[in-house]
């Protein structure tokens, strides 16, 4: 399916753009070591906004190197692995096209695709781009959150292997399109993935389908 370009963990950021909490772990940096991915999250990572991040179905966040290149061109600034706040920078995976509930083998860990990332003002502040939330939402290629089904060690250059894929075929990008683009034409299709969505996302998507 593709490979891990880098595994990234957070350094603490502070500043006005971090919002009411005053600190953020969105700034993630590549590490050369092997990293443990566990049900509780990524070893050495940092979650500050526990209201919106760090739940079991957000144990790891994956984003594509190709999308970083796209936004580098769009914004005229160099974005490097970890700059989207991702734990896994992937090459050749098209993570937004992953199917909800799809299971990945990476290293000796097993991850399960749970749903799209929702851009926020902290993300826009970190990139220092006005209107980024709207632009990122319109583009609709958000990468994906993953749960960790089996803890294991992951490192750069590991292959991403698809172990299983639900028959409903609903992708991360399609769920995002129904939630945030009002794509009623996709509603019946997206409804098929509801059993594979974690709560509270299942409840939110259910109101759209």
From TrEMBL:
Lineage: superkingdom = Bacteria
Give the Pfam families listed for this entry. MOSC (PF03473)
- List, for all copies, the residue spans of the domain called MOSC: 29-163
Show the Gene3D superfamilies listed in the entry: PK beta-barrel domain-like
Q: Which InterPro entries match?
A: Benzoxazolinone_Detox_Enz, MoCF_Sase_C, Pyrv_Knase-like_insert_dom_sf
Tell me the protein's name. MOSC domain-containing protein
Q: Which organism is it from?
A: Saccharopolyspora halophila
């Amino acid at each position: 399916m593709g490979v891990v370009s880098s595994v990234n963990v957070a350094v603490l950021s502070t500043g006005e753009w971090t919002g009411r909490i005053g600190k953020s772990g969105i700034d993630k940096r590549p590490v050369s070591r092997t990293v443990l991915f566990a049900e509780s999250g990524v070893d050495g990572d940092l979650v500050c906004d526990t209201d919106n991040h760090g739940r079991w179905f957000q144990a790891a966040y994956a984003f594509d190197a190709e999308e970083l290149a796209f936004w580098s061109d769009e914004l005229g600034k160099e974005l490097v692995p970890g700059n989207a706040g991702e734990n896994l920078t992937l090459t050749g995976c098209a993570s937004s096209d992953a199917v909800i509930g799809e299971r990945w083998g990476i290293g000796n860990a097993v991850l399960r695709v749970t749903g799209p990332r929702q851009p926020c003002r902290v993300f826009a502040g970190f990139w220092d781009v006005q209107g980024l939330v709207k632009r990122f939402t319109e583009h609709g290629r958000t990468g994906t959150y993953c749960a960790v089904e089996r803890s294991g060690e992951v490192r750069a250059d590991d292959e991403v292997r698809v172990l299983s894929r639900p028959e409903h075929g609903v992708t991360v990008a399609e769920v995002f399109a129904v939630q945030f683009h009002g794509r009623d034409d996709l509603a019946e299709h997206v409804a098929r993935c509801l059993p594979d969505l974690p709560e509270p996302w299942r409840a939110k998507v259910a109101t759209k389908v």
